[in-house]
Amino acid sequence: MEGRVALVTGGGRGIGRAIAVKLAEEGAKVAISYRSNDAAAEETAELVRKAGAGCEIFKGDVASSEAVEALMTGVGEAFGSVEILVNNAGTTRDNILMRMKEAEFEEVLATNLKGTYLCTRGVLRGMVRARWGRIVNISSVVGLLGNAGQANYAASKAGMIGFTKSVAREVAGRGITANAVAPGYVETELTGGLPENVKEQILGQVPVGRFGEPEEIAEVVAFLAGDGAAYVTGQTIAVDGGMAMQ
Ligand code: NAP
């Protein structure tokens, strides 16, 4: 991955941070995007630079086409065309469906699914020109299994899987792969707020018997982003301690 240009959306915290650091350790220059937490993004940038790579941070909402356009221009000016895109920015607005507000549904679909579409569209032309590219979309085990209280999130994450397969088919002949990674439950701020009894319940469904670490997701992303994964495309790799054996 030496010298490759990587963009990790939602790289400010959690899984995205671990992915940014891992790609940097593998030699990539890393741009990260985030929505609002400046301090966390600065911290990621420090960690990436410590890993020996260049890092630039970009604030903006992945659901906004103007913000994504600005992101692409910024990354292009700093590093050149994006060669590795990790669509990791994601959010939740949990509610049972009978109570789910339209805004809760739309916000989750906008960040998780529309954001993936906008960022992928934004990098694809450059990848086609270079006849090389890696797109890794961070879906979720919830997109495979469904989850009560997360119909919006599950729809967005299942949507990412269909999106990934379609893009993979469109660009397979151009040296570009597109794959999805479906993490199980990983301890980050996204899951930190879950009540203890819910965590216990989830743990009961994980054959490995523990939550995952962000670094364990980053390992698989790094594999998919490398030259060695040229013959893997359109796949969804669950990294979930065995929760959703496919
Ligand atoms: P997290 O700790 O909440 O971090 C989310 C990151 O995404 C933050 O950097 C946040 O920016 C950024 N972000 C959120 N909405 C954004 C938007 N509209 N535009 C730009 N950036 C945005 O989440 P995480 O647990 O690391 O999750 C990362 C990805 O893995 C998500 O797609 C999530 O759905 C998926 N996932 C997580 C788990 C899990 O158990 N944690 C399981 C399965 C899948 P700020 O820092 O500025 O807020």
List the topology elements.
Layout: E1 5-9, H1 14-25, E2 29-34, H2 38-50, E3 55-59, H3 65-79, E4 84-87, H4 102-130, E5 133-138, H5 141-145, H6 151-171, E6 176-183, H7 189-192, H8 196-203, H9 214-225, E7 236-239
Parallel strand pairs: 1-2, 1-4, 2-3, 4-5, 5-6, 6-7
Helix pairs in contact: 1-2, 1-9, 3-4, 4-6
This protein binds NADP nicotinamide-adenine-dinucleotide phosphate (NAP).
NADP nicotinamide-adenine-dinucleotide phosphate binds next to helix 1, strand 2, helix 4 and helix 7.
Summary keywords:
alpha/beta, binds NADP nicotinamide-adenine-dinucleotide phosphate, 246 residues, seven-stranded parallel sheet
Rg result: 17 Å
% residues in beta strands: 15-25%
Structural category is alpha/beta
Biggest pleated-sheet summary:
7 strands, parallel
What is the approximate shape? globular
Overall pLDDT confidence: 97
Elements, N to C (H/E): EHEHEHEHEHHEHHHE
Low-pLDDT sequence parts: none
Helix content: 40-55%
Number of extended strands: 7
**Straight-line distance between termini:** 30 Å
Number of DSSP helical runs: 9
Describe what is shown at a glance.
This protein is an alpha/beta fold. Helices cover 48% and strands 15% of the residues. A seven-stranded parallel beta sheet has the order 3-2-1-4-5-6-7, sandwiched between helices.
Account of the 3D structure:
The chain is of the alpha/beta class. Helices cover 48% and strands 15% of the residues. The protein is built from 9 helices and 7 strands; from the N terminus they run E-H-E-H-E-H-E-H-E-H-H-E-H-H-H-E. A 7-stranded parallel sheet has the order 3-2-1-4-5-6-7, with helices on both faces. Helix 1 packs across helix 9. The model has no long low-confidence stretch (mean pLDDT 97). Bound molecules: NADP nicotinamide-adenine-dinucleotide phosphate. NADP nicotinamide-adenine-dinucleotide phosphate (NAP) binds next to helix 1, strand 2, helix 4 and helix 7.
